[in-house]
User: Fold this.
Amino acid sequence: MYGAKNLRILVTNDDGIYARGLWTLVAALKEAGQVVVVAPDREQSAVGSSVTLHQPLRAREIDPPVSGVKSYSVEGTPADSVILALKNLVDSEIDLVVSGINEGANLGDDVLISGTVGAALQGYLNSIPSIAVSVGALEDVHFDPAARLAVVLARLVAKGALPKRMLLNVNLPNLPLSQIKGIELTHLGRRSYGDMIQEGHDGKRKYYWIVRGKPEWKPEEGTDIWAVLNDKISITPLHAVATSSRVLSILKELSPTILRELFDRD
Ligand code: MN
Assistant:
């Protein structure tokens, strides 16, 4: 084995327990350690870091498509799956959480609603190195380069070469390994969707359906979006400290006004 110990790896996703990307990842990560799978029973893309508190969760052990891997299907979100795994379903400590391989990129602003990142975030919040892995395509997805990269990163975790408190957002262009032009260490770019609402009627009531427009790219050099658009792998280290220092200083200037308005009025 690689490194000082046998790495215990929790694999999850937001595309559901039977997604091909999940099992490609599991098959590869078996080389790097002992894998356990806890994943939602159905697709949960775009649920972000949502946690279910108002109803019970059910988990069921399944017959895994990859042999020798204890696997549970959870009637809940990706984040629920990780919490349940860490606090109950898995007896041993987990050394690494890997979420994916997602069908579709999770770039820039996507990380705020991504279920793939939302699952990895739970690992990170529990001080376990966590990695979200996505490939930028919804059809004919090349999962193998992503699985291989996950193994490389897992071995670095096993060696203790990476920090414990770490959340990596990894995105790959949808290409075979031979056509990928390198790896960029990036920061999050900006990408917005211009959401549209379609209205309809189900025969009883009016409904609204949020339809995502084509993403608008602002591919500034050095961003994750730019890397993937240039056929490179993007690795962005994230953290959960999202305080805006720019707005904080504006608010500090406004705070006498806010205090006056709040306490002096009427
Ligand atoms: Mn997904």
In short: The two ends are 72 Å apart (CA to CA).
